[in-house]
Automatic annotation (TrEMBL):
Chain segments annotated as transmembrane: none
Cross-referenced PANTHER family: HELIX-TURN-HELIX TRANSCRIPTIONAL REGULATOR, ICLR FAMILY (PTHR30136), HTH-TYPE TRANSCRIPTIONAL REPRESSOR ALLR (PTHR30136:SF24)
Ranges for domain HTH iclR-type: 16-77
Domain IclR-ED positions: 78-259
GO MF annotation, one: DNA-binding transcription factor activity
Signal peptide: none
Protein name: IclR family transcriptional regulator
InterPro entries for the chain: GAF-like_dom_sf, HTH_MetabolicPath_Reg, Tscrpt_reg_IclR_C, Tscrpt_reg_IclR_N, WH-like_DNA-bd_sf, WH_DNA-bd_sf
Pfam families, A to Z: HTH_IclR, IclR_C
Biological processes annotated in GO: negative regulation of DNA-templated transcription
SUPFAM superfamilies, per the entry: GAF domain-like (SSF55781), Winged helix' DNA-binding domain (SSF46785)
Top-level taxon: Bacteria
Amino acid sequence: MRYVEGDDAARPPYLVESAENALRILLWLRNSPRLRVTEVSDRLGVARSTAHRLLSTLTYLGFLRHDPIKRVYLPGEVLVEIALASTDHQELRRASMPHIERLANAQGWTVHLSVLEGTDIRFIDGCESPRPVRVSVRIGSRSPAHSTSSGKVLLAALPPHHLATLYPEDPPKVTEHTIADLGELEQQLEEVRRLGYATNLGENEVGLHAASVPIHHDGRIVAAIAAAHPTMVEAPSDFSEIVDQLRATAATIEGQLERQADDGARR
């Protein structure tokens, strides 16, 4: 029986109260991406010291992370990993991560693996650049597809009528550089199909540029791999070098996916 807040009739008779309170905190993150000690104390009906201990325990175990500046608690890496493990992307992540890490460390760019979810992309895995000034990984988060290099790669793989269904109106502006006209977006996606890669020049976040290529499996594009760099670090005059590295990495991942599929078929 699924937990519904306020439904005491469905409450099992042998709940462990401390465990119940900790799990309720995690459930609240579905609707509120950040929690404060006072809020948790009030909603649980416990002292602030008790709420603080619960939050500290969840933070220690990686389910939450604490922002000491804003004094809020946010979803932690473990929570994101559990969520991603429950999706159908485990094989893709397993095939990709060793090669993503190798690329990030060799080239000094932050590398992300993304899939399309409606008009957004979701970052399902990634590895940060080893450089002091770098783009942070955003595993589990979403961004508008039309303003990201990975999103453009994935949108370019869709049939034209599907794109019109996704965007009955012009896509929204994210920054001053974002394409916010459907006709212009369609033209750029045609260019992406021709070139086989996409770029993002401050379109999703001012001060960040990125390039992305597709990952194919079973005759279709299943994901995109992108490399991102802050523009304060030598913005390239062209993306040819990193695109070549992304293509090589994507080809390696595609080979690994094939091997994993063959291994699974033999079991």
